[in-house]
Design brief:
Layout (H helix, E strand, L loop, with lengths): L12 H14 L12 H8 L3 H13 L3 E4 L3 E4 L9 H15 L4 H12 L6 E6 L2 H11 L7 E5 L12 E6 H7 L8 E5 L4 H5 L11 E5 L2 H13 L7 E5 L14 E4 L1 H4 L8 E3 L5 H11 L1
Parallel strand pairs: 3-4, 3-5, 5-6, 7-8, 7-9, 9-10
Antiparallel strand pairs: 1-2
Helix pairs in contact: 1-3, 2-3
Length: about 290
């Protein structure tokens, strides 16, 4: 049997072993008559103390999940839930379905516990491959949330993100692509991007001869903003993209009627610019994160 041992989860290793065996029995992963590995084998394989494994096996035996066969070892006892116990049947089917999708019973238990008893997160980690976008997302969330906001480079070898109390956030498209690269037990939350309508709400349309500069170090921000402005009727020939990572970029803004920029580049703009800040993360998404962290 394969066990998932998490040493920093706050749950004693003995309880982790007990829970995984029970869930394995309920999900039919451990059928009646299955022989459990010896205390010594489990302790050696997972580098844990033999007394911890022995205590877990004794608890399972005392609770009726296992039976001792003299001279042979511990075996799973047959599971015979009452015929009218619909909840047991539902839970068994849930575990079987989850396992068919590659989720271990212990993972299902952890997720159910988080749904029933939602945790409050103490740290936000933004997972994002592009440095410029990471800086922008950190700047947008910092100040709104009463917890530290950090970031890691998403893609390739990802730094280990230590639970508990850490919530990993990423743009929705990134999260779908890179979810498997994150620690299996990491709590993840997709960042919802602000819509074009909400970004321009309350803004008056510039004249047809106005020059609108889009200033950002992030190529994606420049692309998104350009597409958004064209979608609401701004002529493409009125738009000028400015990479604020290049030397002399401020001089390119001198003829601009309006500068559309991100929260990071905004801090570096000349004081006489007419500025419209494009924020990536939707207000509703920030409010949800506030609920998760407060």
């Amino acid at each position: 049997m394969r066990f998932w041992i998490t040493r920093n989860s706050g749950l004693p290793i003995r309880e982790q072993l007990v829970n995984q065996v029970v869930l394995g029995i309920l999900s039919d992963d451990l059928p009646a008559g299955y022989k459990l590995p010896s205390v010594r084998a489990v302790a050696r394989r997972h580098r844990i103390h033999a007394n911890t494994v022995s205590a877990a096996w004794h608890e399972l035996r005392d609770s009726g999940w296992l039976e001792l066969r003299r001279g042979s070892g511990l075996y799973v006892r047959g599971l015979h839930p009452p015929a009218n116990n619909n909840l047991d049947g539902l839970l068994t089917r849930l575990l079987q379905t989850a396992r068919s999708h590659g989720y271990e019973p212990e993972e299902v238990l952890t997720r159910l516990d988080r749904l029933v008893r939602p945790r409050k997160y103490e740290r936000i980690v933004i997972a994002e491959p592009d440095l410029s976008m990471r800086q922008i997302l950190v700047a947008e969330l910092t100040g709104h949330l009463g917890v530290p906001v950090d970031s890691v480079k998403l893609g390739g070898t990802i730094q280990i993100i230590e639970p508990p109390g850490t919530l990993v956030v990423a743009l929705g498209t990134r999260l779908r692509k890179w979810r498997r690269s994150l620690p299996r037990d990491a709590d993840c939350f997709p960042l919802v991007v602000r819509s074009a309508g909400s970004s321009l709400q309350g803004q008056s349309m510039p004249g047809s001869d106005a020059i609108i500069s889009i200033a950002s170090r992030s190529r994606e921000i420049r692309f998104w903003t350009r597409a958004m402005l064209i979608a609401v009727g701004i002529p493409a020939e009125s738009l000028c993209e400015v990479d604020s990572a290049q030397a002399g970029w401020r001089e390119r803004l001198t003829l601009s009627s309006i500068v559309v920029t991100d929260v990071v580049t905004q801090r570096e703009l000349p004081g006489d610019c007419v500025v419209k800040v494009y924020r990536v993360i939707a207000d509703s998404c920030i409010e949800k994160l506030k609920d998760l962290c407060s």
